[in-house]
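[recover] target loaded
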């Protein structure tokens, strides 16, 4: 496996905040400990707003592609 195919996970405490992978980095934005949005560093992928439940499970995501 080449080092260019490595995915790296970055956490703040026990919460995932950034996923760094060859296709582009993605960041999770939180409010009151709940995930609210996921943003890609790649302009081709829209920012996704996340609908979550009290257990912090993502139930739905919306973005520009859903319009």
């Amino acid at each position: 496996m080449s080092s260019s195919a490595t995915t790296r996970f970055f956490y703040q405490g026990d919460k995932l905040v950034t996923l760094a992978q060859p296709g582009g980095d993605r960041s999770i934005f939180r409010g009151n400990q709940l995930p609210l949005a996921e943003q890609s560093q790649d302009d081709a992928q829209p920012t996704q707003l996340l609908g979550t439940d009290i257990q912090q499970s993502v139930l739905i995501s919306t973005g520009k592609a859903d319009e």
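[recover] notes: The beta strands are 8-12, 15-20, 26-31, 34-40, 48-52, 58-62.
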